[in-house]
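Work Package 4 report. The design task specified in the project plan requires that, given a folded chain encoded as structure tokens, an amino acid be chosen for each position. We show below one input record used in the internal validation round.
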């Protein structure tokens, strides 16, 4: 694996290897001394052109736990603000001998473009537009693996599918690993030609909940909505597509709740569900660090790879 650009580019075997490697790092992160200097001497640069709490921090912590030097660069504080192109920024970072450039960008394909032009170093996609978010899905797969695995499971992904890179990465993962995905959204938040994805599509959340093993709630991505007229109001959205305690009570016994964050409480998920026993939201965050450790080790080499 030279780069991690998307789940699309990975084989089932590579995905499973990354998940298993990530799981082997879980214990390390729970120790009082959270260090395994496998990547000592390596440089990881986080280049974020879009806001992020979980992903950026998680890559930073992952790199530091492995002993790498981690540098964070946000577009606002960089020469991008002065008009430098994305490629020039990337080439500059390469000239400083970065081993891994982790990039988040609002344009789909931005990490792929950089990867094509860099002779050295690895590129990791930390979310590109509405295209892919591979490390989120690796974190989710670690979470599913810790809860009995994904085999034979049905995951209902609910909400703003049209703008969700997480949903797209799950679609790729589900094809490769064989779990079932249901897409659930109002027609206005479903991508064009959604039938091409080859999975079940629901516009009725209550119908989609029936028989689902996991309810995966998505944030309404207001920053990507060209017009806000895709549903009447956030209140009505919550009534039709919000996961409430009453709705969850009608789900299959043991049904799990996931969300990639950041959550809009009271919109796609009620607080009592977000904080309830079925919620794996904070586990996803914890597993995200381990997943990113696995990715960095796989790309940079090191004893654990
Ligand atoms: N954190 C995820 C992403 O960056 C989901 C979201 O922002 O709603 O795609």
């Amino acid at each position: 694996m030279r780069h991690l650009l998307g789940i699309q580019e990975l084989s089932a075997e590579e995905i499973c290897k990354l998940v298993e490697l990530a799981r082997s790092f879980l214990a390390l992160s729970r120790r009082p001394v959270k260090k395994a200097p496998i990547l000592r001497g390596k440089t990881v640069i986080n280049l974020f052109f879009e806001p992020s709490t979980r992903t950026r921090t998680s890559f930073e912590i992952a790199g530091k736990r492995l002993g790498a030097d981690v540098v964070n660069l946000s577009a606002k504080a960089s020469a991008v603000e002065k008009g430098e192109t994305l490629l020039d920024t990337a080439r500059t970072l390469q000239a400083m001998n970065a081993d891994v450039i982790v990039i988040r960008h609002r344009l789909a394909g931005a990490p792929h473009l950089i990867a094509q032009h860099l002779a050295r170093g690895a590129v990791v996609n930390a979310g590109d537009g509405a295209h892919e978010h591979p490390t989120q899905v690796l974190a989710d797969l670690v979470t599913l693996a810790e809860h009995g695995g994904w085999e034979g499971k049905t995951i209902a992904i609910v909400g703003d599918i049209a703008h969700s890179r997480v949903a797209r990465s799950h679609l790729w993962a589900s094809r490769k690993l064989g779990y079932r995905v249901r897409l659930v959204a109002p027609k206005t938040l479903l991508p064009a030609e959604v039938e091409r994805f080859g999975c079940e599509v629901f516009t009725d959340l209550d119908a989609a909940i029936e028989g689902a093993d996991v309810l995966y709630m998505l944030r309404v991505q207001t920053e990507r909505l060209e017009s806000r007229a895709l549903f009447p109001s956030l209140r009505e959205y919550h009534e039709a597509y919000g996961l409430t305690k009453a709705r969850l009570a009608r789900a299959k016994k043991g049904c799990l709740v996931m969300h990639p964050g950041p959550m809009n409480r009271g919109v796609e998920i009620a607080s009592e569900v977000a904080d309830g026993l079925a919620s794996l939201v904070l586990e996803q965050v914890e597993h995200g660090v381990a997943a990113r450790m696995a990715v960095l080790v796989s790309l940079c080499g090191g004893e654990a790879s």
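The chain has a mean pLDDT of 94. Validation will be extended to a larger panel in the next phase.
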